[in-house]
Amino acid sequence: MTSRPIATTRNVMGVPTGRLAVWWVLASETVLFGGLLGSYVMMRLRHGAWADQAANTNTWTGAFNTLVLLTSSLSAVLAHQAAERADGPKAALLLRCTILGGGVFLMVKAFEWTHEIREGFTITSGLFWSFYYTAAGLHAAHVVAGMVIMFIVSLTAARNEELHRVENVGIYWHFVDVVWIFLFPLLYIAK
Amino acid sequence: MSGLATHPAVHHDRGFVTYLWSTDHKVIAMQYLFTGMLMALIGGFAVYVFRMQLAFPGQSVPLFGRVSSGQYNSLVTMHGTIMIFWVAMPVLLAAFGNFLIPLMLGCDDMVFPRVNRLSYQVFLLSAVVLVASFFVSGGAFGGAWTAYPPLSANAAYNLTRYGATLWVVAVALEFVAFLLGGVNFITTAMNSRAPGMRMFDVPIVVWMIVIASILFMASVGPLLAGAVMLVFDQVLGTGFYDPATGGDPILWQHLFWFFGHPEVYVVLLPAMGIVAEVIAVFSRKKLFGFRTIVYTAVATGVISFFVWAHHQFVAGIDPRMASLFTITTLIISVPIAEMVFCYIATLYGGSITLATPMLWALAFVAEFLLGGVTGIFLGAAGADIYLHDTYFVLAHFHYTFFPIAIIGAFTGITFWFPKMFGRMMDERLGKIHFWVTIIAFNVIFIPLFITGAAGDHRRIFDYSGFPDLATPGLQRLRITATMGLVSLLSVQPVFFYNFIRSMVRGPIASANPWRANTLEWSAPSPPPHGNFAELPVVYRGPYEYSTEDREDDFWPQHLPDDSPTPVASVGDRRSA
C-alpha cells in the first residue's frame, strides 16, 4: 500500500510501533477523563445535595448499556484473534459487530437523554446534570470516533491488509469501555 | 518486511500545495518554525502597543493609535497566549523536535509521517482561529492568558463574548496538534533509533524533547476537560465555575495550573537540551554528567506535577496546603540547579569558541539563572502574598520564558541553520543582534523587578488613577522598560535580514561545519528527503570530544572505531 519510512519498520523496544503509539494516546486520554471525573468527584464530595439530582438517572438503562458495551468488546477481542490467524475477512466481520454494539449503545443513550430532557433535566438544570451530560457526551464522542476508526480498519482488514490495526483499534475500544465502567457507578449508581 | 517498501522515504514535493501536504519531517519542522516566527511578530507587536500605553498613557501609539482599555486587555491576553502556545511550543518543541529527532536518531523520517502532517495542519488551523479572533465583534479575548473564571466565563465581565470562545477553541486545537506531535516524538525515539544506539547514545536534546512531550501529554488532559467546561459555561450557560450554581472558580485554577506548571518545563527542557548540545560542541568537551542531566530532567518532570498551587497562594487555598506547595516548589529548583552546574562544569577547562550560537547558549544559562533565583521568592508563600500579581512576578517569569522561548530558539536556529539550509549565517550580524537583544532584554526587566517590588500591580491599564503608583520615579522606570522593549524589537530586523540573506546567499556550509559528533552532522547540508544516503549505525555516545590519542578533537557517532580519522588505540571502546 503506502510506502513507509524505514523508521516506521524499526522496532527497538520490541513493541510494534503502532501499538506503542496507541498506548501513548490512551495515556493522554486517561488524564483527560481523569481531570473531568476528578473534578466531578471532588465537587460531589462537597455537595451532598447532588444526590437528589442523581436520583433521577435510570440505573437500569445504564446497566443495560454497560452490558452492551462490554459485549461489543468481546467481538473486538475475537477480531484480534482472527487477525492473528491472518483471517482478515472474519476480523472485519467481527469488527463490524463491535460497531453495531457501539450503535446500540448510542441509540439507548439517545432515548435516555431524550426522556431526561423532556422531563426537564437539561445540561443547565444543575451542576450534577452539567457533569452528567459533559462526561457522558465526551465519552459518547469517543464511542463515535472508535466506530469510525473501526469501520476504516475493517475495510483494509477485509482485504487482509494492515491486520495489526485490528488489535490497535481494539485496545482503544477497551479503553472506551473502561471509561464507561468509571462513568456508570459515578453517574448512575451513586445516588 | 514483506511487501512494504523499506527504502529511505522518497518524496517529490514541489510547489506550494505539495509543500503544504508534505510529510517530510524537515518540511514540517520548517512549517512550524516559520509559523512560530510569524506569530512572534504578532505577539511582539502586541507587547509594543501595550508597553507604549503604560509608558505614555493615553497618548497615540505610533502604528496603532490610542489604546482603549478593552484593547489593552485583548493585547495583553494575546501577547501571553501567543508567546507561550504559538511561539515557544511550536519553535522549541515542534520545529526542533521534528527537525532533530529523526536526524539525530539516524532515521529517514518520523514513524508516523502523516500524523505529523496532520499535527501541523491542526496547529495551523488553531493559529488561524486565534488570529481571526482579533477581528470578531468585541475583539480578541481580554481575560488574561490564564483565563480565570468568572472573568473568562462570563461575557458581561470580559466584554469579549466571541473572542473568549474562539480563544478556548484555538487553545484546545493547539493542544490536539501537540498531542499528535508528541505521540510521534515519543514513539520515534523509543522504537526507531539507529542500530547500535543505546539509551545514553541518544543526544541530550532528544531526551529533553521526549521528556517534555511526555510531560505535556500527562498534564494537558485535565486542562482540555477544563476547556470543555469553560466553553459550556460561556456558550450553554452551565455553571461549572460559577459559585451561584454551586460551581467553583478555583477549580479552573487547579486544572489550569496542573497543566500550566509542567508546561513551563515542557518548553524549558527542549531549550535546556539545545543549549547543552551547543555548549558541548563549542567547549570541545564531553558533556559533563550526561546521565545526571537526564535524571535531573526526569526528576524535574515528576516534581513539576506537585507544585501547581504555588500560583494560587492568594486564591484562598488552605494555608497548610500552601506550606506543602512551598516545599515542593523550593525542591524543584534543586534538579534544575544541578543541571546548570553540569553545564558550567562542561564549560570548565574547555577550549571555548565564542561563536554566535555559543553566545546565545551562555546567555541562556546566565539569564535563566536570574529567573530561577527570583522564583525562590515567589515559591515561598509568605513572600508571594506580597509580590503576587505585581510586576515582580512578571519580570520573574520573563526571565525564565525569554531565555527559553527567545534565547533558546536563537541558540538552536543559529546552531542548526547550516544543517537546515545548507548555508552559514553571518557571524558579525549575528553578534550585533545578540548583544543588542541581550542588553535590551535586561533593560526591560530589571526596572520591572523594582517597580514590582514597589507594588506595581500587573493588571492596570493606566497608573494615573493610583496616586501611590503614579510617582515620577516609578513612571521613569516604566518608560525605561518600554525603551528597552523598543530597542529589542528594533534590532530584530537584523536577525531576519541575516536569516533570509544567509538562506539565499550565505557561504555554502559543509556537512559538519561545527565539527560535531551527533548523527545529523553526518547527513548532507541540507539533508535530502530520506536524510541519509545510507542509514547510519552508531558506535559511541554523542559527546566524545577531545578524546585522548585521537588527532581530531571530535569523534562522530557513526564512525566505526577503526576508520577514517582516528589514530592509535581505540582502547576499551565498544566494538558492537
Q: How would you characterize the overall build of this protein?
A:
The complex is a heterodimer of chains A (191) and B (576). Chain A is mainly alpha-helical and 191 residues long. Chain A has one domain: Four Helix Bundle (Hemerythrin (Met), subunit A) (Up-down Bundle). Chain A is 81% helix and 0% strand. Chain A is built from 7 helices and no strands. In chain A, helix 2 (17-46) packs parallel to helix 7 (164-189) and helix 5 packs antiparallel against helix 6. The radius of gyration of chain A is 19 Å and the shape is elongated. Chain B is an all-alpha fold. Among the domains of chain B are: 14-202, Cytochrome C Oxidase, Chain A (Up-down Bundle), CATH 1.20.210; 511-576, no CATH class. The longest helix of chain B is centred in the N-terminal third of the chain and has 36 residues, at 69-104. The two termini of chain B are 24 Å apart. The interface between A and B is large, with 40 and 55 residues.
- Order of SSEs of chain B, N→C? HHHHHHHHHHHHHHH
Structural class of chain A, by secondary structure, is mainly alpha
Helix content of chain B: 55-70%
What fraction strand of chain A?
under 5%
Radius of gyration of chain B: 24 Å
What composes the largest sheet of chain A?
none
For this structure, the CATH topology of the domain at 14-202 in chain B is: Cytochrome C Oxidase, Chain A
Any guess at the CATH architecture of chain A? Up-down Bundle
Strand element count of chain A: 0
What descriptive keywords fit this protein?
heterodimer, A: 191 residues, mainly alpha, Four Helix Bundle (Hemerythrin (Met), subunit A), B: 576 residues, disordered N terminus
List the helices and strands and how they pair.
The complex is a heterodimer of chains A (191) and B (576).
Chain A lengths: L5 H4 L7 H30 L3 H5 L4 H26 L3 H31 L8 H32 L5 H26 L2
Helix pairs in contact in A: 2-7, 4-5, 4-7, 5-6, 6-7
Chain B lengths: L14 H6 L4 H31 L13 H36 L8 H20 L22 H4 L2 H31 L12 H32 L13 H35 L6 H14 L15 H29 L8 H24 L1 H7 L3 H31 L5 H27 L18 H34 L71
Helix pairs in contact in B: 2-3, 2-4, 2-15, 3-6, 3-7, 3-8, 3-13, 4-6, 6-7, 7-8, 7-9, 8-11, 8-13, 9-10, 10-11, 11-13, 11-14, 13-14, 14-15
